[in-house]
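Folding problem:
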Amino acid sequence: MEKIRKGHYAISLRRIVQVLLLVDLFVSLVLFGFMSGSEQGIDRAEAVSEEIVRLETSIYNMKESLYALSGRARQYVLTHDGEELSAYIAELGLSEEKKEHLVETGSHFQEEGIQYHLQTVQSLIDQVIREQCRAILLAAGGTEHAEQASRISERVEMAGTQALSPAKRQAEAEERIFGDNYLSMMEQVNRQMDVYRTALTGNIRQNQSYGMRTLSRRIGDYRNLSLISSCTLFITLGLLALLIIRPVYTLIGEIHYGMPAGQRGIYELQFLASTYNHFREQMGNARLRLSYEASHDKLTGLYNRGAYNEFLEMYRKRPLALLIIDVDHFKTINDTRGHVTGDKVLVRVAEILRRTFRETDVVCRLGGDEFVILLLDVNRSAQDAIGAKIVHMAKTLEVAEEGLPRISISVGVAFAEQVSSVEELFLAADHALYRIKKSGRNGYAFYAGGPLPG
């Protein structure tokens, strides 16, 4: 508790923030722990799914390769086509890679049953390939393909077959690749790979089930903790509303209407209210902004040079157009008709300027017969619209009023996008004004680029 004045105490915002930070830190750490566990469960489930896909893919590829080898071997035995033999030898190399991938898929599982099925599958695949190689070597013996077929001879033992006649070799080759024994071996390989897949998939799904149960528990814990976190949040919001938000709005209303501020809410707000009341008692209703007389021209009621400089600094980063306006032959009007008429001319020009341009635009009198206008949020695409306003304004001034002569003006216009600073913006507009004066006055010109006076 912090003491404001004798007999008046309040809770400090610093202490509220400390408590909230500790609560938030605790909840965040617990949530982080639960989220980490949930992510591990999700990762495990994803890994299991990927393992099943790899297993299915490797078994499918191995079966496909065995059938492809069988087809190539049978075609060669029947046709003695050298291209079929080459294709078989190439496919044999690919089948070795696929078999290695199949073995690698099951090598991560150390269960005795899975390893037994894996070894059985390997053995049966090797038996089938050896039988294919024997059939090919028998069919190729004594032919022009014998040397090519010798590339697979290291896989089988062919002792005693050299003495067979070509017809017997061909018959034995066909029997080995088309006989019931070969068909039985192929069927056994397929069946054993299915058994291996079933065993491995069951093991994987068991791990998946464990991971999903763990994930389910994590989600339940996360839901409960989220409920606690939501309750904590509502309590926090209630405290903020009671001790900060509501007192702040009340204090704002009291300050806005110039009323004494009541001391309520947290310590810092009560201290602020006490300071405001002290300031209010000392300063009364003194205003902090510049007085109207300090920022406006007394004759025309337009902004003066000081206000122009402030607006220019305030809007220096916004798209701007600057108009510099001179009353043509104003000195002659003063000399021939007097300063009273000259002042009336300036007042009329000021009124026309004020009526012609938007309320958001800044119309100023810098001094004498020189006026400037800051057009906010415009760029060079508005040239035609600006020109139309200037023409309309000039036509209005050309109509003489009672006691006043016809008035003409010269206008120079420049855009902020054409220059690099607001200082150069004035020089650019002045450069355009100089051009129109040099060409005979009573008109307007836009800055068209070129060097500016230093």
Summary: The longest strand covers residues 320-327. The two ends are 64 Å apart (CA to CA).
